[in-house]
Amino acid sequence: MELVATINRVKYDAFKWRYELSLPWKLVLALGMAALTGLLAQVRIPLPWSPVPITGQTFAVLLTGVLLGRWWGGISLAIYAGLGIAGVPWFAGWGSGIGYLAGPTGGYIIGFILAALFLGYFTDKFIRSRSFFTMLGLMLFANLILIYVPGLLQLGLWFNLVKGEPATLSALLGMGALPFIAGDITKAIVAAAIARGVTPKHAYNGEIDKGKWASWRIP
């Protein structure tokens, strides 16, 4: 019991420390998670029928929102996008530049920012969100909706403007969503388990459900 209490205290102290950090240190953490996203972007499996490869980016994106919290998860991924546009070669396949963001996979990068903002908000504002099943549900929504929708929209626009051949919805799903669902669900399960293990189950910044979450939480 003493070990469990110590671990819980360490988690609480770590997240409270993160929440109360000065701006320069928050920027350092945001840059670090952006670099991790860029590193996992190089874990890349091209698909012969699609301009969208399988990558490890989404795993980093999901954890960025949890670890950096409200606003800073999104800021971290905005830094990833902005520095990539500026020339840092950390998009998938060591890519960079505005042309990459305007390409067939650019919409997914915009979705990364939305997903991290979404997960960071719930992590910081609701203790209940830090349980495994609640976090898994949030991560699946972030991945399958907030990342896939802008990704598919830009992929369709790219086919129209660059290829000059409008893609049907079924074709877009076959190239930009369906091949990735199983892998993304697996990554979400692992990320949710990590989030469950590292996040404190006590309020560190005045959470909305402070004092009442335990009576209706999901384990």
Structure, described:
With 219 residues, the chain is mostly helical. It has one domain: Arp2/3 complex 21 kDa subunit ARPC3 (Orthogonal Bundle), CATH 1.10.1760. It has nine helices and two strands, in the order ααββααααααα. It has a two-stranded antiparallel ribbon. The two termini are 19 Å apart. The mean pLDDT is 91.
Topology:
Layout: H1 2-20, H2 23-40, E1 44-45, E2 54-55, H3 57-68, H4 72-86, H5 98-101, H6 106-125, H7 132-163, H8 169-176, H9 181-198
Features:
about 65% helix, elongated, Arp2/3 complex 21 kDa subunit ARPC3, 9 helices, single chain, 2 strands, mainly alpha
Low-confidence stretches: none
Mean pLDDT rating: 91
Please report the distance between the alpha carbons of the first and last residues.
Answer: 19 Å
Number of domains: 1
Q: What is the compact description of this entry?
A:
With 219 residues, the protein is an all-alpha fold. The protein has helices spanning 2-20, 23-40, 57-68, 72-86, 98-101, 106-125, 132-163, 169-176, 181-198; strands at residues 44-45, 54-55.
